[in-house]
Amino acid sequence: SCSRTLWQGKTLHCTYKYNVLTFIPLNLYEQFKRVANLYFLALLILQIIPDISTLPWYTTLIPLVVVLGVTAIKDLVDDLVRHMYKTSDGSSVCFRFQSSKWRNIEVGDVVRLRKNDFIPADILLLSSSNPNSLCYVETAELDGETNLKFKLGLRVTDEQLQEERQLAEFDALIECEEPNNRLDKFIGTMLWQSERYPLDLDNMLLRGCKVRNTEECHGLVIFAGADTKIMRNGGKTRFKRTKIDELMNYMVYTIFALLILVAAGLAIGHSFWYEEIGSNAWYLYDGKDQSASYRGFLSFWGYIIVLNTMVPISLYVSVEVIRLGQSKFINWDLQMYFAEKDTPAKARTTTLNEQLGQIEYIFSDKTGTLTQNVMQFKKCTIAGRSYGTDLLCCSRPVDWSWNQHADRKFEFMDHSLVAIIRSKKDKDVTEFFKLLSLCHTVMVENKDGELVYQAASPDEGALVTAARNFGYVFLSRTQDTISIKEMDHETTYEMLALLDFNSDRKRMSIILKFPDGRVRLYCKGADTVIYERLSPNSRHKETTQTALDEFANATLRTLCLCYKDISADEYAAWSRKHKDAQVAMVDRDAALDRVYEEIESNLMLIGATAIEDKLQDGVPETIATLAKADIKIWVLTGDKKETAENIGYSCSLLTDDMQIHYGEDVNNNKDGNMSLQIDFVDMACECEAVICCRVTPKQKANVVSLVKKYKKAVTLSIGDGANDVNMIKTADIGVGISGQEGMQAVMSSDYAFAQFRYLERLLLVHGRWSYIRMCKFLRYFFFKNFAFTLVHFWYSFFSGYSSQVAYEDWFITLYNLCYSSLPVLLVGLLDQDVNDKLSLKFPKLYLPGQQGSMFNYKNFFISLFHGIFVSLIIFFIPYGAFLQTMGQDGEAPSDYQSLAVVTASSLIFTVNLQISLDTSYWTFVNCFAVLGSIAIYFGIMFDIHSAGIHVIFPSQFTFTGAASNALRQPYLWLTIILTVGISLLPVICIQFLHKTIWPSVGDKVRPPSVHQHRGRRSRRSAYAFSHSRGYADLISSGRSIRRRPPARGGPQDSIREVPHREAENI
Known about the structure:
Number of helices: 36
Shape: elongated
CATH topology of the domain at 375-563 and 609-614: Calcium-transporting ATPase, cytoplasmic domain N
Helix content: 40-55%
Active site: 365
Domain P-type ATPase C-terminal: 746-1000
Keywords: ATP-binding, Cell membrane, Cell projection, Endoplasmic reticulum, Golgi apparatus, Magnesium, Membrane, Metal-binding, Nucleotide-binding, Translocase, Transmembrane, Transmembrane helix
CATH architecture of the domain at 375-563 and 609-614: 3-Layer(aba) Sandwich
Membrane topology: Multi-pass membrane protein
Organism: Sparus aurata
């Protein structure tokens, strides 16, 4: 019954990735895109080739299956959530002339929606049950904002499309933009009955919104399925990676290169060995007539298999587990929970936690981020006279009992302004508040006799509320009229045009027709744009400017108010141009701006408003603490320079002993955009603090990009509004504050919380801990794999370089899965060098993360050489002990299997005791993990070396009785103890020297346990546990294995505090 236009209907775009048939093949395909997984699959294939393989296939298959399985389960859980969304989405029913599912809706269909229905497509609103086709929608699914927005149908469709018969005969042609992801913009025209009408976003109901406070509405489907704006926004956000991620990848490539070199060297060795020795030894003849070089070639691939554990397959999975745990700790932190709004901190990503410990630059919005974004009308200047400034004589606020519509929460201290209003003698004051009550886009609801305003911004709500209290009450609006109560009588004005606000115009205007026929334009906006458009005959410009400066110095937000009387002929001529611009399909916004500029000229100044936006709690202290951690803070705001500067002083970003440099004072004679950018970044980064004022959302993102590009620094952006989304997405880490401007910033962020002050704890506690834990985990992980794998290298010198293994096959399979994984995982999750109180008290502890000093190529090669040293000890001490020995019962334990048992046992003791030496924060869980790993090793070893399992699987379990035979010899236990002792002794000595001669920042702050004595029932140790409730309590009882602190004084008395002067110099 209605024409289909431009794009044919499409079926619903699936947001899930898998179904029952495609899950396994698609998931495996995605996982094998990772080079590490593909590498181990290639190894598995090599192990199937008999001439190459020296290890059973299951030594690679079992770890690979575990890794793939864990990842697949995670992907399956994520996709089940998407399936549930799809089930509730694609099967939803919306009421049309006949019921239909969403997936069946096509472009051109006319749809009927009722109250609380979700909108199934992008729909042009035609009519509704409300007057003037007004329709309220909730956009929480789009932008997270729960306050209601209103949409308006065109007057012509409202009047002519109320009945079903009229809707069935509707035959308009819609021309509009192509499908796109711009949620804030829509351009189109409707050609109907030989007349062309402009369409914009105010006429559109977008998919994902919910109909509210509207019993019924009708609309025409413009975009359906995958073409809707919300589905077009389903694309992937820019993938953010940490510095450690990049470094880790390069190190894996380095390990792979080392593996190739070592395997090649051993393969050459095998060729020479076979040429000189192997071919001449009759007892080594294997029946194959292969040349030495060919045997060397096979040996190369054999060593690629044997030494494959140098490239750690479980590294990436372990890292993801640690990051997930760290994210949960952020979510569970009660000290970042804002009880007033029941808002906990939220880690919206699990991949960036350690990057929080490396931040060098913070870029912050001002309004709603540093300030509360709760606006209060405080002062104003009208016709050159200021009000609300001289409050010395006023000790009590104005009594609003004379105004039945007044908001009782509104406070104003200057009684003289109320007296002037009530006298009705000052026309300028009357025009001032009349403008505030008329020039806005606020919607009003009447709930139980109370007027409830729905404002697009807190500023606008504060101004309309102020006018309401002073007797100019906004009552209602339609598409064409707006009604207010002026003191004691109600007046309705005809609205001829609404020239809306945007970040480029920085002003809004409304053109009204008065009851007496006069046409007047009211305008309010930033002083910079208003003063450019004032008439030469406008009065009070100087006095108003002086007042604006005073307001800015008091950190108040200002707006200028002005008006212009328009003749009927002038308006008629302008209206034609305006209508042409409204229906333009190309550059409509630019065309409208030109038309707006034409009418918004020769304005007459009335006065200015000043609104207070208070700082959030704890902002100055947070900024001061972060500055001590050498984190540079830049504030990017749209406010004027004076306001921004004074906010800088009030929040301790600027101090009196700083020298202030202004952008316009800096001379730059260089040509070229590139050189200007470099000069700006170099100059700004030399400053302790930077404030950029009058910046647009795009410019905010550009500033962040410049610092990232030219300084290679780790950046963090924090904001609370939609205008901060660009900046949040551009930075390495984006933080959203759930404030008064909706949830768009939060939905685009990596981390979210309710107050700026929580940033201090996020960075200095969680970020720092995460960085230290990850660095310690990676250093140890590389070490234990090198120590384990390189034993094969030393063994090859005594096995003819024949790619034989030094351990039992099942030990190789289970080493990373069972014997050495849990202790290092717990260090990555729970370790603390100092507790949270000391982390906040000594911000300089944050410096190692910024410098990247705890994990870099130097640390990597230290781990490599440490692994080489330990593997050398673990192989050669048992080898030397086995050369000439005899067991107590006369049996010689000098066989290959006994050697494998002794080296494996020495390795397990060494790596588990090594992680014990590296653990700073001990709990029952850590003890259990270390001792449990050793116990699991012996338990599994005795099982797989038993005769029973050999009988069942004779070819897979060949070390029958090896463990029981070897470990009953005291001589071999002494060998194990000697091996472990020599492996750990250098580490203990180096750690002692470092802590006494070259202590780190953490060592200087960390209190020694020797100063803690037994006292009363105070169980918390300053070294082992934080003063507040720790995370380990979530896992175990958390009993300290350390002594109790002394009974005297508070918790801080149990800490040997670093003197203040020394702390400043750390």
